[in-house]
Design brief:
single chain; alpha/beta; 9 strands
């Protein structure tokens, strides 16, 4: 049984002809602003599991299906992160929430980054995980192969190919076998609408860089990923952290790109510490913790 037994409330939203959804669960004892969770390319608002439950000890949790995600309408691949970012603003307006703390991971990180550029007043603090404005060169062949299988099949090969693209082969990853089974079930159960969104969202990342780093987001931002992340390697995430004037970088041990599944308790602890402006030193689960406000960017 979940620690918080509150029934999630579901809301329908509309923007620019797109229908999309949100799921809000109320905390029994909130001590900080609501937390919004934006996930990866095939993430659904119901998929946050232990991360959502852990955060409910501290705050209300809002899990959206923005345009291009889950139950929402498909977002054509020629559109960038502006529509999802504006959709998130409309969602907060609909729920009458002025300001939130935001977590955005993987594909969703470009939406969080864009929102922090265009509407910094709506975000208290932000955590970006497995950050990508596009798919790194080394990861492109595997992602293109997964898209081809989603488009033309054979369908039974799509799930394993997508899992291999997302997960590192490194043996020292927490709950690795369990996470592989979870992902295999998720991708194996994908219907035509899920696959259409995966194709559109991945092609969006393959076609161009979705992050305009020339406009620094004026929001305190923590960048994080797993030490074994092969999709968005730690050095690339750290490099992106330097595009924000008030940024931190934390690398999680025994994890790759899927830290929300592999190390959910540690991710919740990291988020709640950061959102509450608590110190980040001496994190037993981190291989690297840096306050980049005091570190000059490499030239």
């Amino acid at each position: 049984m979940p620690r918080n037994a509150a029934t999630p409330q579901e809301y329908k939203h509309r923007l620019a002809g797109y229908t999309y959804w949100s799921r809000r669960t109320y905390s029994d004892s909130p001590r900080m602003a609501p937390v919004v969770l934006v996930g990866g390319a095939l993430h659904r608002k119901e998929d946050w599991g232990r991360v959502e439950q852990g955060l409910l000890d501290h705050a209300d949790v809002i899990c959206p299906d923005l345009p291009g995600w889950g139950r929402a309408d498909l977002l054509p691949p020629y559109l960038g992160p502006d529509i999802p970012a504006e959709a998130l603003v409309r969602l907060l307006d609909d729920l009458r929430i002025e300001r939130v703390n935001l977590f955005a991971g993987s594909y969703g990180s470009s939406v969080g980054y864009r929102l922090a550029q265009t509407h910094p007043e709506r975000i208290g603090r932000m955590v970006l995980a497995g950050t990508m404005g596009g798919i790194p060169f080394a990861s492109r062949p595997m992602m293109r192969a997964a898209v081809a299988l989603a488009e033309r099949g054979p369908r039974e090969r799509f799930g394993p190919a997508a899992v291999d693209a997302l997960m590192s082969p490194h043996p020292d990853i927490a709950s690795k076998a369990v996470v592989r089974r979870i992902l295999a079930m998720r991708f194996g159960a994908a219907d035509d609408a899920d696959l259409a969104k995966f194709i559109a969202n991945t092609n969006r990342l393959l076609s161009r860089d979705l992050m305009d780093t020339s406009v620094p987001p004026a929001v305190p931002t923590l960048f994080t990923t797993g030490e074994h992340d092969t999709l968005t390697p730690p050095e690339l995430c750290r490099e992106l952290a330097f595009t924000c004037p008030e940024s931190w970088y934390v690398e999680l041990a025994r994890a790759d790109h899927l830290i929300h599944l592999e190390r959910p308790a540690q991710l919740v602890d990291l988020m709640t510490r950061f959102f509450a402006c608590e110190p980040l030193e001496d994190l037993a689960y981190a291989t690297c913790v840096e306050d980049l406000r005091r570190v000059p960017a490499a030239v």
